[in-house]
Amino acid sequence: xxxxxxxxxxxxxxxxxxxxxxxxxxxxxxxxxxxxxxxxxxxxxxxxxxxxxxxxxxxxxxxxxxxxxxxxxxxxxxxxxxxxxxxxxxxxxxxxxxxxxxxxxxxxxxxxxxxxxxxxxxxxxxxxxxxxxxxxxxxxxxxxxxxxxxxxxxxxxxxxxxxxxxxxxxx
Length: 171
Known about the structure:
Elements: E1 4-8, H1 14-28, H2 35-39, H3 47-56, E2 60-66, E3 69-78, E4 88-96, H4 105-119, E5 124-130, H5 134-142, E6 146-157, E7 160-170
Parallel strand pairs: 4-5
Antiparallel strand pairs: 1-2, 2-3, 3-4, 5-7, 6-7
Helix pairs in contact: 1-3
């Protein structure tokens, strides 16, 4: 039995979510981005975004907590990709503090997102993953996602360019 609990995020979680987002992105992208680009992944650049997401439920956000500490989060909703059916959901973001990687937190967050998407009537779910993020690709493929090879694209995050691919599976 896991000591982690997954629950819907509340406004007071926004700062902790931003911190998880920043620290886990820095660890995940350490071999992908330059040191300057990694420094730009500061919690202060993310807190307002997550506060707004929680307030307006776009995307829906759930957190994984251990005791009172937020150790991971997932944001999910309908797909943002053009021309996708309304029954297509998307994992907008899923991040876990590096010291909790491999302990079931990501699976618990994925389960919560899948349940939420199913409640929304979604039958398919997608996620965009950087091609060089081997850990994330492996995690999602073990969860049953398949790469859609024709979707590979370059995304700009400010001055950062990242090659991404969409993965897809049934809800």
